[in-house]
Amino acid sequence: MAVKRKTAGELSLKAASDSTRYNPLEVAIEATQGIGSQIQQVIDRHNKIFDEEEYCVGFVYAKDPLIRGIKRRKFFAMLYLPSPRPEQTIFLYNKKTDTLVKRLWSLPDADAMAILSESKFVDPSLKSMKEWSDAFFEGRFWHFIRKQHGIKMLSEHEYLNANREKFIEAGCQEVKSPTPEPFDFSKVAVNKIVDTKTAIIK
Question: In this predicted model, which residue has the larger pLDDT, 60 or 71?
Answer without folding.
Answer: 60
